[in-house]
């Protein structure tokens, strides 16, 4: 019987280098996936509001409600609502956006829009990660047709039921259920700054009990709270991007937000 020759040294080296290359590729992909997950915006357990844009103008506002689960879609009939004005002027906080092209008509099924955005990631602008889009796609698949609502609105010519429609669409049930009292103090020289933030938080379902102006301006924005940590507190902290301070005794509200001059040029509210 003929004896098989052992692999040559060059063949062993080739196998070794191939294995090393695959290991390096695997590690690189794992690291990339980790960082993409870190940048993820979608929390599968809580509300997520997505804005659909066309030519940088707001065309749809979609709220995903995992608690129900349900889906609320507002088709915006105004032609010139800039995305940057949505929070400042109308008190509507968005968690992310996707930009669609002219080939995608308004009122398109959410699954179709998300899937098209997923396939056209390189050319359709969005601040969502691939994981975000996949999570939203999976969520939409879990929502029955009875739990999907579509309404048309105009933001510039608001009807008598406008505030009710916005509240029903944007309310985060977890924030509403916690019912934590919030005080907002405007410590800037900008009139109405506190009211703008108060409108946003109210639209999210928060219990804003007082909005006032400080006698003196303050440089830094602060969030102070009394009691236990809460989802409401975390949501506000994420919205404003500032550290929180725990109070040793309660003020007139459980959470006190003092808006400082550092938020003068904010796009958040």
What is this structure's SSE topology?
Elements: H1 9-38, E1 48-54, E2 57-65, E3 70-76, H2 85-90, E4 96-99, H3 110-119, H4 130-142, E5 148-153, H5 162-170, H6 173-178, E6 181-186, H7 193-203, E7 207-213, E8 222-225, H8 231-240, E9 244-246, E10 255-259
Parallel strand pairs: 1-4, 3-5, 6-7, 6-10, 8-9
Antiparallel strand pairs: 1-2, 2-3, 8-10
Helix pairs in contact: 3-4
Largest sheet: 5 strands, mixed
How would you spell out the order of helices and strands? Answer: HEEEHEHHEHHEHEEHEE
* Averaged pLDDT: 88
Q: Strand order, main sheet: write it out.
A: 4-1-2-3-5
Q: How many domain units?
A: 2
Low-confidence spans: pLDDT under 50, at least 5 residues? Answer: none
Shape: globular
Descriptive account of the structure:
This protein starts with 8 loop residues before the first helix and ends in a 10-residue tail after the last strand. 35% of the residues lie in helices and 22% in strands. With 269 residues, the protein is of the alpha/beta class. The chain has eight helices and ten strands. The strands form two sheets. A five-stranded mixed beta sheet has the order 4-1-2-3-5, with helices on both faces. It has a five-stranded mixed beta sheet with strand order 7-6-10-8-9, covered by helices on one side. Helix 3 (110-119) runs antiparallel to helix 4.
Task: Describe the structure in brief.
The protein is 35% helix and 22% strand. It is an alpha/beta fold and 269 residues long.
């Amino acid at each position: 019987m003929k004896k098989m020759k052992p692999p040559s040294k060059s063949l062993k080296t080739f196998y070794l280098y191939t294995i090393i290359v695959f290991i390096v590729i695997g590690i690189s992909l794992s690291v990339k996936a980790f960082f993409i997950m870190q940048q993820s915006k979608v929390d599968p357990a809580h509300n997520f509001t997505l804005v659909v844009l066309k030519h940088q103008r707001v065309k749809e506002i979609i709220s995903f409600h995992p608690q129900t689960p349900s889906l609320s879609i507002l088709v915006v009939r105004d032609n010139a609502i800039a995305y940057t004005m949505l929070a400042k002027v109308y008190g509507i906080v968005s968690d992310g956006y996707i930009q669609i092209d002219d080939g995608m008509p308004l009122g398109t099924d959410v699954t179709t829009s998300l899937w098209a955005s997923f396939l056209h990631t390189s050319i359709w602008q969005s601040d969502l990660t691939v994981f975000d889009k996949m999570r939203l796609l999976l969520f939409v698949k879990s929502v029955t047709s009875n739990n999907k609502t579509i309404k048309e609105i105009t933001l510039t010519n608001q009807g008598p039921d406008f505030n009710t429609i916005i509240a029903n669409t944007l309310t985060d049930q977890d924030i509403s259920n916690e019912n934590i009292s919030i005080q907002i103090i405007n410590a800037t020289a900008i009139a109405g700054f506190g009211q703008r933030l108060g409108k946003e938080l109210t639209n999210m379902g928060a219990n804003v009990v007082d909005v006032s102006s400080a006698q003196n301006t303050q440089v830094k924005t602060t969030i102070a709270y009394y009691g236990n940590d809460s989802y409401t507190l975390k949501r506000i902290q994420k919205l404003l991007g500032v550290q929180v301070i725990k109070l040793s005794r309660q003020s007139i509200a459980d959470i006190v937000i003092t808006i400082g001059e550092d938020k003068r040029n904010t796009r958040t509210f």
